């Protein structure tokens, strides 16, 4: 027997409908391979973003301040990692919101400007004081890119604040 493949003889032996089906399946397979290559080889936009995080007392993402007195100095460690495709400059604003009176809002700190190269990280302590007493006081940490409108990232802590 002849074991060599004869694709031309095989192709001409197919009916017209079978040839169209084979071409359709081949096209679908090629399209699936191109989509798979795109998914695995082209980086997603989520891979190019800035990491923005807070760390508690022991340098871990836990043990954040939960209670405070008015005027008491509170501290967390703030971290920024530039995972974007260019050098960026950042600054951080810290705002306090009254949990029961939404319009009551006050800025309690501004930190930065931090210029970070691609892949560079920075961790710095942030200190602020709570301006008024109340339960569920929201502390909002807003990360801004210099030269861009609006906050780029935001983090929040909630505290119960007592009179001293």
Put simply, the count of helices is: 2
- Write down the secondary-structure element order: HHEEEEEEEE
Q: So what's the overall shape?
A: elongated
Portion of residues within helices = 10-25%
Head-to-tail CA distance between termini: 99 Å
Walk me through the structure:
By secondary structure, the protein is α+β, with helices and mostly antiparallel strands. It is 20% helix and 44% strand. The protein contains two helices and eight strands, in the order H-H-E-E-E-E-E-E-E-E. The strands form two sheets. Strands 2-8-7-4-5 form a five-stranded mixed beta sheet, with no helix packed on it. It has a three-stranded antiparallel beta sheet with strand order 1-3-6, with no helix packed on it. Strand 7 and strand 8 form a beta hairpin. The model has no long low-confidence stretch (mean pLDDT 92).
Gist?
With 164 residues, the chain is α+β, with helices and mostly antiparallel strands.
Which descriptors would you attach to this protein?
alpha+beta; 164 residues; 5-stranded mixed β-sheet; 3-stranded antiparallel β-sheet
Topology readout:
Blueprint: H1 7-12, H2 16-41, E1 50-55, E2 67-69, E3 73-82, E4 88-97, E5 105-116, E6 121-129, E7 134-145, E8 153-162
